[in-house]
Amino acid sequence: MTTDTPVLVALRNDYEIVVEGLAQMLAPFSERVALVELDSGAPVARPADVVLYDTFGQPQGEHLDISSLQVGPARAKVIIYTWALEATLAATWIDRGAAACLSKGLPAPVLVDAIERVHAGERLVLPAPAGENPRGRWPGRSEGLSEREAEVVALIAEGLSNEAIAGRTHLSINSVKSYIRSAYRKIGVDSRSQAVLWGVDHGLLAKRSRRPGPDEERFVLP
């Protein structure tokens, strides 16, 4: 599906590397999706048709306030972009006002098509094809951490307990402990305090910033 004018998209996550990875993935499709704002730890300020919200390290399920992501006079449609696309979790997000829940395993052309369909009024839940890996980038990936392992270490670096991490990520406490063990082996630490220091040294602390997207000047007045 294509439209005559690009869909205005704001990208939202607390981690700059995640937002930049999304921007790079969508850049080849600038005639279809115009990136007007890149937000790390800051609310969207510019008018946008769609907010693409990456859930890495973010509140999920009933902990996510969808209305806080909707901006502009037309109230931007919110797309939840997640690797953990469970049916019950997706239903919770849709019930709370999200327009779509999309897997991070979707190829970029499918993601762009889904953004256009949401802008046209559809509600979507799209899982990834079998065997697909997450797209984009995340802190800790270059050091060998999977997205979930990196997310858990990032939240440890933010000072969250295992129980709080489970609530934030919608994982069981046993899954959180499993990711901690595997992450610790990969990064060569054996205590929580060492993991915090490793996270600080490797960019796993969230940073607050708001930047115009590459297409902002073409489509959004100051």
Automatic annotation (TrEMBL):
CDD domains for this protein: LuxR_C_like (cd06170)
Keywords: DNA-binding
UniProt entry tagged with the keyword DNA-binding: yes
Domain of life: Bacteria
SMART domains: HTH_LUXR
SUPFAM superfamilies according to UniProt: C-terminal effector domain of the bipartite response regulators (SSF46894), CheY-like (SSF52172)
Transmembrane spans: none
Ranges of residues in domain HTH luxR-type: 138-203
DNA-binding in keyword set: yes
Name of protein: Response regulator transcription factor
